[in-house]
Amino acid sequence: MKTARWSLKTLSVAVILLAACGGPAATPGLPSPAALPPTATLAPTLAVTAAPSATMVAALTSVAAPATAGPAGTASPLPASATPAPTIPPTLVAPVTGLPRGTDGLPWWNDAVFYEVFVRSFYDSNGDGTGDLNGLIAKLDTLNDGNPASTTDLGVNALWLMPVSPSPSYHGYDVTDFYGINPQYGSLSDFHRLIAEAHQRGIRVIIDLVLNHTSDQNPWFVSAEDPQSPYRNWFVWSKTDPGWLGPWGEVVWHPGKVGFYYGVFSSSMPDLNYRNPAVTSKMDDVVRFWLQQGVDGFRLDAAKHLIEIGSEQTDTPDTHAWYKSFRPFYKALNPQAVTVGEVQDITPLVADYVQGDQLDLAFDFNLAGAFITSARVGQADAAEQALSIDAPQFKPGQFATFLSNHDQNRVLSQLAGKPDKGKVAATMLLTAPGVPFIYYGEEIGMLGLDTDPQRRAPMQWSAGLNAGFTTAAPWEPIQPDYAQGKNVADEAADPTSLFSHYRALIHLREQHAALRVGDWKLVQASSPAVYALLRFSPGETLLTVVNLSGDALAGCTLSLAAGPLRAGASYRAAPLLGGGPDADLTAGPQGGFDGYQPAATLPPYSSLILQLQPQP
Ligand SMILES: [Ca+2]
Ligand SMILES: [Ca+2]
Ligand SMILES: [Ca+2]
Fold first, then answer.
1. Could you tell me which residues are beta bridge partners of residue 160?
2. Do the bridges between strand 530-536 and strand 253-255 make them parallel or antiparallel, or are there none, so unpaired?
3. Distance between CA atoms of 59 and 48, rounded to whole angstroms?
4. What ligand is nearest to the CA atom of residue 147?
5. Strands 237-238 and 253-255: what pairing?
6. Potential cystine with 260: which of 2, 56, 253, 352 (Cβ 3.0-4.6 Å)?
């Protein structure tokens, strides 16, 4: 399969395809042959061998232009059987120095705290009401200033950018040009600058990769409406309406100009046909292109929907086979590149994708819901059950944790708007095993529910005009609570704020390997309102204790039947977060403890993180 990816006919075919994928401004359709760019101008110049340095970025900026700005519509018919050649030779992308590299044998992403950014809503640098790449660059220092000694920044060290390519929609999940940057967000050279500025600060960057479908305005699909088009077989067609429905009972067969096409999400998002090797080859090329722009990996949108077997539409063996083939492809380009799959499903089906031969990570939706449930009802059992059942299904730490994302109601909207509940949810997230992802604005407790645009509303930076997001009318109304202290500036100055809590937790996670890569054991508490988790690595042992309830709890005790402590040894319990006087601990005969009382009283919604220091 891997060989087949490269047993390719002619480079000129690929050049034709590159030219055909212009942005929204490109003339739809694929007219008759015209002057083609000389093949020699593309391949050699894009053969980069290292991730971008400042000079590399400059070089990429100048050479990458043909991929997005080539003359529109200069294709000749593509023989239906032909597999297009790669536009760029397979060259290894070297690892970037100065970024998280991995601890205790685990990959770099286990040292990361990811931050999901919707560029349109983050920060508007040019006063048009729409967030953009230069706006994100301007705010990087607030996310991580690159100085480990300073703790005024939030401290995240990896970004997930929701789609940044040209698209007719505001959200970008229906792509018209897989090689481009949405002009509302900036240019490819802005993107290169973002990568360079982020990497300089020790921040890695992954981008959304929308493999499953395109926009119905994508030139490939516009052409494919013609049954004679070489692109016809890039999509999934039926002469008549097969009639069966999708995974949510939705209509998935949509009338085209001739026949019906399959689109699991909507008629404006036709599914690509991965049974056609030309499609796989093309998307391999897209992946290669973005790795060579310096991205550190991809969040795979709708990962479970890739290949259907008739009316069997999710998690099919063919989808898994495709990822098995995809893995050696992208790892050969950059062994450090990460993939994290969106597989919104029950955990056994999610875990199938990350057993080592397909994706690196997948989001644990079940655990996310359980963290929220425990925070909402003030009881630990939901989170304890989900963690104990889910985590062992993955390889150690190889799953992505989160509370909510851009498709869900915002965390605080699910928690009755109470920042205290947001705090305990954040403690569970950021002390748990796995790779944590924070959705922008979650750290200040932004609200947003019911509609997607409200869940993706502009970031609230200050109490000033338009929350400091823009000087113009914002693309989407800003949540009005920005003026009542719910903004980055006010919360950063308040040591009791939700933002300050996130910031403290993130910096603790970065300072303590046990929180990032350590093994874990759930600890039994005498109160059902208390969540307690032990994390331990070769170097240290940390105990997290969370009072999920609004009541002060006196006399709560903790027990662990067997654990990693030295039998009979005494431990000083040094508070890293919260806490008052130390309450030292004596290990039991099995390395656990029994009836340990970490504090006389656990205040309402309090989080305590203790470092258990062995005493001589
Ligand atoms: Ca703008
Ligand atoms: Ca810093
Ligand atoms: Ca599909």
1. 116, 206
2. unpaired
3. 9
4. 2
5. unpaired
6. 253
Is the pLDDT assigned to residue 80 strictly greater than 70?
Answer: no
Fold of 518-614: Immunoglobulin-like (2.60.40)
**In angstroms, rounded to a whole number, what is the distance separating the alpha carbons of residues 502 and 514?**
18
- Pairing mode, strands 570-577 and 558-560: unpaired
| CA nearest to 280, candidates 245, 335, 329 | 329
User: Mean pLDDT for the chain?
Assistant: 87
Which residue in the list 111, 225, 271, 301 is annotated as catalytic? 301
CB 131 within 8 A of CB 162: no
Structure tokens at 444: 């200040």
> If you measure from the C-alpha of residue 19 to the centroid of ligand 3, how many angstroms do you get, rounded to a whole number?
25
**Nearest bound ligand to the CA of residue 503:** 2
Residue reference for tokens 């331990």? 536
Sort residue 532 into left (φ over 0), alpha (ψ -120 to 50) or beta: beta
Quote the pTM value: 0.86
Q: How remote is the CA of residue 305 from the centroid of ligand 3, in Å?
A: 5
CA distance 517 to 111: 7
Q: How far apart are CA 433 and CA 378, in angstroms?
A: 21
Domain ranges of the chain: 518-614
Catalytic residue check, 342: yes
Distance 201 CA to ligand 2 centre (A): 9
* 560 closest CA partner among 519, 602, 527, 588: 588
Determine the Cα–Cα distance for residues 467 and 122; give it in Å rounded to an integer. 11
Amino acid at 128: D
Q: Supply the pLDDT for residue 46.
A: 30
Structure tokens, 21: 């994928």
Q: Is 32 exposed, middle or buried (0-12, 13-18, 19+ CB in 10 A)?
A: exposed
Q: Which of 342, 345, 390, 443 is catalytic?
A: 342
Residues 188-192, mean pLDDT to the nearest whole number: 97
116 noted as active-site residue: no
CA atoms of 547 and 553, how far apart (whole Å): 8
Distance from the alpha carbon of residue 157 to the mean position of ligand 2, in angstroms: 10
Which H helix or E strand runs over 59? helix 54-63
The DSSP-derived string for 543-557 is EEEEE-SSS-EES--
C-alpha dihedral sign at 472, 473, 476, 479: positive
Q: How many A from CA of 173 to the centre of ligand 3?
A: 14
Indicate whether 44 pLDDT > 50. no
Q: What is d(CA 347, CA 362) in angstroms, rounded to the nearest whole number?
A: 10
Distance CA 447, CA 413 (A): 5
CA of 545 from ligand 3 middle (Å) equals: 43
Mean pLDDT of the 583-612 span: 96
> 12 — alpha (psi -120 to 50), left (phi > 0) or beta?
alpha
Q: Note the pLDDT of residue 47.
A: 30
> Whose atoms come closest to the Cα of 149: which ligand?
2
- By DSSP bridging, strand 297-300 and strand 204-209 are parallel
Q: Which residues are placed with Cβ below 5 angstroms of ligand 1, an ion?
A: 124, 126, 128, 130, 132
Ligand 1 centroid to residue 136 C-alpha, Å = 10
